Amino acid sequence: MQSGEFVEAAHTWKLEKLYVDLASAKNKGLTPVEKKILRGLLCGYSPGEIADIIYSSTNSSSVRVYLSNGLYKYIEVMLYSQTNQQVKINHWSRVTKLLEEAGYKLDSALPPQVAPSLIEKNHQPEIKQNFDWGEAVDTSIFYGREKELVQLENWIIKERCRLVSLLGMGGIGKTTLSVKLAQLIQHDFQFLIWRSLHHTPQLSELLANLLQFLAQAQSSEFTLSETSPQRTSQLLDFFRKSRCLLVLDNVDTLLQTQTYTGDFRPEYEEYREFFQRIGEVLHQSCLVLTSREKLKEIATIEGVNLPVRSLQLKGLNEIDCQEIIKAKGVTCSEYEWRLLVNRYSGNPLALKIVLTTILELFDGKVSQFLKHNLLVFGGVRELIEEQLNRISTSEKQLLYWLAVKQDILLLETTEETPPGMSKGELWENLESLVRRSLISKHTTIFKLLPIFKEYLNRELGKQDNLQTEVVPNPNPGKLSSSPKVNET
């Protein structure tokens, strides 16, 4: 017997068989909450309606997390094992159709206990949705970020933010999160477009691509304007008339290197006004950006109570990182995996690079790798240098100084500054480095991540070993020539 919410599902579905088969796909039994949410879907309720019934709240974030990170995956695995055909569930409404086709529905009509309003609701025409995922990455394997997804969904769906930035250092998972977020909230949008700016398109080219898709999807007569500002106005017209979600990945490829953060390269200056207008003009759509650096234009118009927000991504927690370690096939003690995770600050890409080396060179033995006490090498070094080679000379000087000092207190408690750097310059460099995700800020303390600290100290050590040899640096923007820092 079923007890609790959505018990009417037992009248039309083979629930017990479904529970058993999903438990097999999951490798353990469904939790009571998972069963309850599944029954709600089988009754035809949306995630929002399920949340309202279960939690007396219109915020469906927790229900959607249960679906995207659990039930959808279990159903996909179960159906693949039965048919040997891959299926992908991107919307809650697909669940009942797939399960009915798989033979889990009873041959009986809806019982009288089901509310007539529900029957009417199920026969209402759905709003046609038009999605273009571009080169979006596969997120079938996704770790953690439940809290971030809940917060982002709340910003975009409940608080109607017009522009949201996902920020973080290379390898932290911005791209994957942007795709997972879009999949999670796509049902609330009529149009969804995901684009990578890795190939640095001109704004006019990008806008032409976006506008042509939107116009074709609406089957409306459309004449593409000539200039980027005019095309931006056309895009905003679409954003006002329809609920659109636009995701632009790798925005930092448009920015200058070896200067303060957030400045566009001259050939991409048009993007400055574009992002400002999207954030400031009233419309019902949302633009999501991913970047290693925060844009100056966004920093000036964002706020906790404003429709423009930024989310700084930190490393994954220990439990989620442990799942990455298991997936790679590396076994180790709790002490070893905790040490490994802390050394790389939960950066998933850095962790995967290191785990690959452990498998290839140390036969998967983490203890043997840890004995060498070497954090930065190979792919991890490339990941660090790719980020550090973007920064200005003065930022570089501050980073080396922080590497020696371990951390720095905000200047109301200390008057100490790097040699030759004024207090104002220190503040400017600190702000820029925080926006680049190169240093972490905890209340009034700024700290380097362990992998950056080791890299910079090793560079200083190399310079100390060569201090009697003066070699002019033909390219001061490269990190091969580290500024000498006085250890005071």
- Quick one: overall form? globular
Classification by helices and strands: alpha/beta
Strand content: 5-15%
Number of separate helices = 20
Annotation, overall tally of beta strands:
9
What is the second-level CATH architecture of the largest domain? 3-Layer(aba) Sandwich
Query: What is the CATH level 1 assignment of the largest domain?
Result: Alpha Beta
The rounded Rg comes to 26 Å
Q: What is the fold-level CATH name, i.e. the topology of the largest domain?
A: Rossmann fold
Low-confidence stretches: 108-126, 474-488
For the biggest β-sheet, the strand order reads 1-3-4-5-2-6
Tell me the domain tally: 4
> Could you give the distance between the termini?
73 Å
Q: Let me know the average pLDDT.
A: 82
The major beta sheet can be summarized as:
6 strands, parallel
Give the CATH superfamily of the largest domain.
Answer: P-loop containing nucleotide triphosphate hydrolases
- What is the percent of helical residues? 40-55%
Encode the helix/strand succession as letters: HHHHHHEHEHEHHEHEHEHHHHHHEHEEH
Pfam families: NB-ARC (PF00931)
Protein name: NB-ARC domain-containing protein
Biased composition (Polar residues): 478-488
Organism: Floridaenema evergladense BLCC-F167
Q: How would you explain this protein's 3D organization?
A:
- The chain has helices at 15-26, 32-42, 47-55, 61-83, 94-101, 116-122, 146-158, 174-185, 203-218, 228-241, 270-280, 296-301, 318-328, 334-343, 348-361, 366-371, 378-388, 393-405, 423-435, 450-465, and strands spanning 130-132, 163-167, 191-196, 244-249, 286-291, 308-312, 407-409, 439-442, 445-448.
- With 488 residues, it is an alpha/beta fold.
- It has four domains: 7-122, no CATH class; 130-312, 3-Layer(aba) Sandwich (Rossmann fold), CATH 3.40.50; 318-372, no CATH class; 383-465, Arc Repressor Mutant, subunit A (Orthogonal Bundle), CATH 1.10.10.10.
- The strands form two sheets. A six-stranded parallel beta sheet has the order 1-3-4-5-2-6, sandwiched between helices. The chain has a three-stranded antiparallel beta sheet with strand order 7-9-8.
